[in-house]
Amino acid sequence: MRVIFGMLISLLLTHSSVGIHILRLLTEYGLTTTYGIRTEQLPRFNEYDFIIVGAGPGGSPVANRLSENKNWRILLLEAGGPEGILQQIPMLPTINTKYDWQYKYEPRKKACLGLRDRRCLCPKGKSLGGTSTINGMVYSRGHKLDFDIWAEQGNYGWSYDEVLPYFKKSERANLREPVDKSYHGKNGYVHVQNTPWRSPMTDLFLEAGKELGYDIVDYNGRQQIGFSDNQLTMVNGTRCSASKAYLRIRRSNLDIVTEATVSRVLIDDNNHAYGVEFIKNNKTYRVNAGKEVILSAGTINTPQLLMLSGIGPKDHLDELGIKVVKDARVGYNLCDHVAFIGLTFLVNQSFTFLQQAISTPGAALQYAINGTGPFSTPFPGGLAFTRTKFATDARPDLEIVLQAGSFNVDPRKGRARGITEEVYDTVWKPLEGQTTWGIWPSTQLARSKGRVTLRSTNIKDHPIIDANLLDDPNDLEVLVEGVKFAIEISKSKTLQRYGSRLHDIKIPGCETLEFNSDDYWRCAIRQLTTTFNHEMGTAKMGPATDPTAVVDPELRVHGVGGLRVIDASIMPEVPVGHLAATIYMIAEKGADMIKQSWQN
């Protein structure tokens, strides 16, 4: 199959306009495969023991683990189709295609001002594997204190010592040093590896970190603060998505139905969930659950489904004429890791950075034969976690992500991030043909909270996503510190050997401010805001005494029987790092909770 990848990439490199067009067509309409995953056109039975909604990092592990019990019948419903072949090439993004819900945040006055329509994009995976099929593949668990805080809030069983075994259970690690081996699993379903190809820029980045006094660390081990190579969910140079990891199993008691959009949970007069209604090929079907319905549709779709089913804020549901089953704070507490994408650095020496590497004639052949080379990595870089002067506890409040290249080498000219033509032409067009690198700083413990609400009672209408980015001034100030830290890295002796310098064309909207002043960076961050699309928190976990909680510590929806939520929406507070690893942990732990409930 990698031979096909190589042929496509060669076409893209040698005949770029034709190649891009064919890649787009193949991504949109063809070359899909289930990778050995058996699917059904429709459910084979009218009733299953468990119905799981969503086949991402939440739903796929739950389907696998529950189907281990041969006496239970499991139905997994996914709104998207099978994964596509092109999703397996780490270097080729597939956002803004049929594999992406293509959500957008509502326009804001404090963020995303330099993007199209003042809206940050919110890509979410729509296929078997969910967002794990379109994300950056970074495997990062969060800080120990994140989970201890969850437990202190009344969420029994969620301290770090209690969740670490589930992180390890999900993982099959094969990592380069440095690695804290006692913190990693070897027998799980999710392959975690370093990229087969590493840009020389990564080595310079790590060397600069050491020069600044930081250790090179395994950020999923004992120590998180420091500089690191990326740990990625991948195997043999290809993406390891949730579905490839967990659903390539042959079990007669597990039915998987794709392109089935669940429109609501069926709830009886006793507030007990007994099934779901879904739409496929413009027809509506119902199927019953003898034991439980499990929502793993993600931070955006899970609250949408809950509210359409009558579980949500009473005033909001009343406005839409939805019968209230349970008045609950569904959709609130939306949080994300907000970042700045406007930092670009240049060098004055010839060097093999990203743009040179991918244009090498042998790169496609190298990937096709060996699964190595620059096409085997989602972005050739590294990352670092650190604490700014605004940190209030031991956790890092800032992440910086190395980009071995900037938007001047992006064939899409930043459109995948919503950058306007005006901004691109002003900032990056003058750099076309030049060697660049970048850093994206991201605030980790964001205080700004948003909300998801319904646009209508039609499941086909995207919900309203008001992320409220940078509403809390602390988030902005952390990012300003992140910019300063990135510039400090650029000024290291390591990078000065290559004449590294900050690109100083002012970002449109900030022309009147002194370049490199704090006020300039505050303005620039508000113009070129993005997020790492780590949305979480919209069905918050908490004890019954917490009026803002939607699910209890065993992930059961408060006040509604037979209904659980197992995905990122249950996170009560945003953790440090990237979310996929934590969602896998939640799914593994949630599956065990379900087993214990019914086997007892």
From TrEMBL:
Cofactor: FAD
Catalytic residues of the enzyme: H534, H578
Residues in the signal sequence: 1-19
Lyase among keywords: no
Entry keyword Transcription: no
A single MF term (Gene Ontology): flavin adenine dinucleotide binding
Entry-linked Gene3D superfamilies: FAD/NAD(P)-binding domain (3.50.50.60), Glucose Oxidase, domain 3 (3.30.560.10)
Keywords from the named record: FAD, Flavoprotein, Signal
Matches recorded under SUPFAM superfamilies: FAD-linked reductases, C-terminal domain, FAD/NAD(P)-binding domain
Pfam families: GMC_oxred_C, GMC_oxred_N
Positions that bind FAD: T131, N135, G136, M137, V138, V262
Ranges for domain Glucose-methanol-choline oxidoreductase N-terminal: 125-148, 298-312
Family: Belongs to the GMC oxidoreductase family.
PANTHER family xref list: GLUCOSE-METHANOL-CHOLINE GMC OXIDOREDUCTASE, GLUCOSE-METHANOL-CHOLINE OXIDOREDUCTASE N-TERMINAL DOMAIN-CONTAINING PROTEIN
Protein's recorded name: Glucose dehydrogenase [FAD, quinone]
Species of the source: Fopius arisanus
